[in-house]
Write a structure and sequence with these properties.
Layout lengths: L2 H14 L2 H8 L16 H10 L6 H23 L3 H33 L4 E2 L2 H5 L4 E5 L2 E10 L3 H4 L11 E8 L3 H5 L10 H8 L3 E3 L5 E3 L2 H13 L1
Parallel strand pairs: 3-4
Antiparallel strand pairs: 1-2, 2-3, 5-6
Helix pairs in contact: 1-5, 3-5, 5-10
Length: 233
């Protein structure tokens, strides 16, 4: 399947996700908030399913696959931290959901980048992620490491990666602005003008917001860099 067709399939999948339902279900649950060991984090499996296998699973199906793969390791960790089974498995899906919701929009950005730079131009992996590159582009011999700078009131969104080792290529920041949903429900001030966070988002052509609340990158996030490289070729 072509890059464009797969991007379109992923886009349509994201539009069907009931974010409001998940938020209401998981937002109040903050039990499993400690740092998770690398071997039970969900990042590697997310890249494997949504990028390598190109399967766009619902959160429930993803979480079931995660539990199956990590079952023994999760139990070892739960016993080590001395948390009761009921509490741990109540808090775990909420923790994994927040990782899932954040990373699938980032992976979607990789598909958008591939539609701009061409087939097999994009790499994404847990290793690159840990070293500060959310996706790496190889275009006309130029290696570009895109870092997504997420701007939000949420601590989890604001948290930036600290690279563990240097990797080759140029680093480029792209900004992921996540205004509160309230600004989209009521974007106007009393005088009829737009509230500033909504206006800034509306004027930013690098991002698009779906009706369900998902915010994704558009081709504009990558076209300027592509044009810059093309002009030097």
């Amino acid at each position: 399947m072509s890059e464009i067709n797969k991007l379109n399939e992923f886009t349509e999948f994201l539009k069907t996700v009931n974010l409001e339902l998940y938020r209401n279900q998981y937002r109040p649950i903050k039990i499993v908030e400690m740092d998770l060991p690398k071997n039970i984090q969900a990042i590697e499996l997310l890249y494997k399913i949504y990028w390598i296998r190109k399967e766009f699973l619902s959160f429930e199906n993803f979480y079931n696959e995660y539990l199956t793969e990590k079952k023994d390791l999760l139990e070892e960790f739960r016993i080590k931290i001395q948390m009761c089974e009921k509490c741990f498995y109540l808090g775990l899906p909420a923790r994994i959901y927040r990782t899932w919701a954040s990373l699938i929009t980032q992976i979607h950005g990789g598909y958008v980048a591939e539609s701009v730079f061409g087939k097999d131009s994009v790499k994404m992996s847990e290793e690159l992620d840990h070293n500060g590159a959310d996706f790496q582009i190889n275009y006309k011999g130029h290696l570009i490491n895109y870092q997504v700078k997420k701007e939000s009131q949420s601590r989890e969104i604001r948290k930036e990666k600290k690279p563990k080792k240097s990797i080759s290529g140029e680093f480029v920041n792209i900004f992921y602005n996540v205004p509160s949903g309230d600004y989209f429900e009521n974007p106007y001030r009393k005088d009829g003008s737009y509230k500033l966070p909504y206006l800034r988002f509306k004027e930013d052509k690098t991002l698009n917001r779906f009706d369900n609340g998902f915010i994704v990158f558009t081709e504009e996030a990558f076209l300027i860099k592509k044009a810059e490289i093309d002009s030097r070729s």
